[in-house]
Write a structure and sequence with these properties.
Elements: E1 12-13, E2 16-24, E3 28-35, E4 41-47, H1 55-70, E5 79-84, E6 90-95, H2 101-107, H3 114-133, E7 136-137, E8 146-150, E9 157-160, E10 167-168, H4 197-201, H5 209-224, H6 234-243, H7 257-266, H8 277-284
Antiparallel strand pairs: 1-2, 2-3, 3-4, 4-6, 5-6, 7-10, 8-9
């Protein structure tokens, strides 16, 4: 028996029994599932039935699954299997990590201790550097796409998820079997609050510096408890990302001068002025927040 379109609780997918739906997105749904005969808990991501009618969306979903299967990193969510349900949507089986950073921030009142912020940024910088080394740019870094393997204060361990918007930076740098799909139907790909200025202008031609900018937005948010740029509509938010300086003064009560300086560098409007992730990682290793007992 296979899962039907619009799979419900206790349908089966390729040897896994769905338990409950835990997340719904514009393109896909995620279910908690149990492996038949083994009892292992996993997450199964299914493309939504209406999206399965679009060949380019199906291709992007399958490319995401292939990328996760091919790209192994301690801070990248692991894909265990992938496939297509007969007469149904494609699916991928992922390791079970039910908590994301967005939920952690919500329960923490919007902010994290400065040390935990550095640890999260360090781990995300490592995995983003790995993706960039494979010629891929993520293009959708945000708290909902950061899963928690450990959430205890001082010992947080994160996994980057959702490569649905990932794209090759150059064909020449390609070294894996994954190719991103160009979606002409979408003018901009990404999440507005975290999109770099160049991503607002042409999301299909960005490089890894767009991920560096998004990492700066996330670092600011974790420290301050709000986003650096907020507006009621897309146009207002685009104006701020393109032209307004980030309010780094809001970091003063929460971060040291060195941290404020690095966040400001990550949020430079000109991508050429943003630091390389390798430079950031070299600096983070000596941050006082990581030198505690």
């Amino acid at each position: 028996m296979s899962a039907r379109k619009g799979a419900g609780s206790h349908a089966r997918v390729n040897g896994y029994t769905l338990q409950q739906r835990i997340a719904v997105g514009a393109m896909s749904e995620v279910y908690e599932a149990i492996q038949d005969g083994q009892g292992a808990r996993v997450a199964i991501k299914l493309l939504r039935p209406e999206q399965s009618l679009h060949a380019e969306v199906v291709a992007r979903f399958l490319n995401e699954a292939r990328a996760l299967m091919a790209l192994r990193h301690p801070n990248l969510v692991r894909a265990l299997e992938m496939g297509v349900i007969p007469d149904g949507p494609p699916f991928m089986v992922l390791e079970w990590l039910p908590t994301n950073l967005q939920e952690v921030l919500l329960h923490a009142g919007g902010r994290l201790p400065a040390g935990d912020c550095v640890r999260v940024v360090q781990q995300l910088a490592r995995v983003l550097s790995h993706l960039h080394g494979q010629g891929l740019v993520h293009r959708d870094l945000k708290p909902a796409n950061v899963l928690l393997a450990r959430s205890e204060p001082g010992r947080m361990e994160v996994r980057l998820a959702d490569l649905g918007f990932a794209r090759r930076m150059t064909e020449a740098s390609a070294s894996t079997a994954v190719l991103a799909v160009s979606t002409a139907r979408e003018a901009r790909l990404g999440t507005w609050d975290f999109m770099a200025p160049e991503q607002w202008v042409d999301s299909k031609r960005v490089d890894g510096k767009a991920d560096v900018y998004a990492l700066g937005i996330l670092w600011f948010q974790m420290l301050v408890g709000r986003l650096p740029f907020e507006a009621r509509n897309e146009q207002g938010l685009m104006f701020q990302h393109l032209l307004e300086a980030p309010p780094v003064g809001l970091l003063e009560p929460r971060a040291s001068p060195v941290t404020r300086g690095w966040v400001a560098r990550l949020l430079e409007k000109n991508p050429a002025e943003r630091p390389a992730l390798e430079d950031l990682l070299g600096a983070l290793a000596s941050f006082p927040e990581l030198q505690g007992p």
